[in-house]
Amino acid sequence: MTLPKQLQGLRIPVVGAPLFIISNPKLVIAQCTSGVVGAMPALNARPAEQLDEWLAEITETLAAWDRQHPDRPAAPYAINQIVHKSNDRLEHDMQVCAKYKVPVVITSLGARTDVNDAVHAWGGIVLHDIINNFFAKKAVEKGADGLIAVAAGAGGHAGVKSPFALIQEIREWFDGPLLLSGSISTGGGVLAAQAMGADLAYIGSAFIATDEARASDAYKQAIVEGTSDDIVYSSLFTGVHGNYLKASIKNAGLDPDNLPESDPTKMNFGGGEGSKKAWKDIWGCGQGIAAVKAVVPTAALIDRLATEYGQARARVGA
Ligand SMILES: Cc1cc2nc3c(=O)[nH]c(=O)nc-3n(C[C@H](O)[C@H](O)[C@H](O)COP(=O)(O)O)c2cc1C
């Protein structure tokens, strides 16, 4: 199956994953003008009215870029909607997305036919993130155009499946757009995702250590210095299992190696400040950060990925 036009013609097959609190218009614009899809959670705009301003800024800046660089137009952008019942902003945020005809909507934590229909009505596509084959089937049944397989080792909420198992199971029945996420932070990793059957790589944590990311210097530095040994998988902070930097858990006065369990009733993704506080103090992060050696401009990170991707293709081809 050919990819929808929104995912074609990228410099490298990469989508910058949405990062709660951290993604902002500057990061999205830098990702898109560097040739990969940039993404941001709608909930990062606070108060809710700010979403309109942010989408205006992204739309106008990318259009201006295209006028000035007709030979290398910007990649499309994506907005992430948390489709969970606790997200009391969903209706408002969807209306703003409709106004700007957002090209790609990424839905998380529940697939909904009405959301998919609304995006299709304005000509957008929906990518839904899942952690297993069961949820993948449900998402496609409800009208998602593509899937994001969130494998073990991904930053933020993550599953426990090997990417090899997950991609293989989904590819047995789904020939639509398939993205892979979890610890990808090199161009070789991007090519590996394609080799195992995904169309694109979905990269989050590596973008935290960029100039544009809205994260503290201490957080960015912890990613530069960290490796997979510095990551812990826990459900304590949001009610859903995810990967976090141990250092931030120690800073909060907890023992990262002895954390109590929580459960999904604790999930809360709304306009309130509760979930925001948890993510500000406890730093979400995937296992793939050893490849991140410095805080750099987003354009430089994408240059590195593109160079490595070319080298990996040459190496495998040879
Ligand atoms: C700090 C942080 C915040 C995240 N916030 C969101 C979010 O708001 N919505 C979402 O769909 N995924 C979120 N994710 C998950 C990413 O979109 C993506 O699946 C993940 O970062 C990919 O794995 P990687 O970090 O190993 O590259 C977050 C991840 C991190 C690290």
Description:
This protein has 318 residues and is of the alpha/beta class. The protein has helices spanning 25-33, 50-68, 90-100, 113-121, 133-141, 163-171, 187-195, 217-225, 246-251, 274-281, 298-317, and strands at 14-16, 38-41, 77-82, 104-108, 125-130, 146-150, 156-157, 178-181, 200-203, 231-234, 242-245. It has an eight-stranded parallel β-sheet. The model has no long low-confidence stretch (mean pLDDT 94). The structure holds flavin mononucleotide. Flavin mononucleotide (FMN) binds next to strand 9. The site of flavin mononucleotide has 26 residues, from strand 9.
Give a brief description.
The protein is of the alpha/beta class and 318 residues long. It has helices at 25-33, 50-68, 90-100, 113-121, 133-141, 163-171, 187-195, 217-225, 246-251, 274-281, 298-317, and strands at residues 14-16, 38-41, 77-82, 104-108, 125-130, 146-150, 156-157, 178-181, 200-203, 231-234, 242-245.
- Averaging pLDDT over every residue, what do you get? 94
Please mark out the parts with pLDDT under 50 across 5 or more consecutive residues, or reply none: none
Question: How do the strands line up in the largest sheet?
Answer: 1-9-8-6-5-4-3-2
User: Percent range for helical residues?
Assistant: 25-40%
Number of helices: 11
How would you characterize the largest beta sheet? 8 strands, parallel
**Distance separating the two termini:** 27 Å
Tell me the quaternary state: single chain
**Which secondary-structure class do the elements indicate?**
alpha/beta
Listed once per kind, the bound small molecules are:
flavin mononucleotide
β-strand amount: 5-15%
Instruction: Write down the Rg.
Output: 18 Å
Shape: globular
SSE arrangement, N to C: EHEHEHEHEHEEHEHEHEEHHH
For the secondary structure, the number of strands is 11
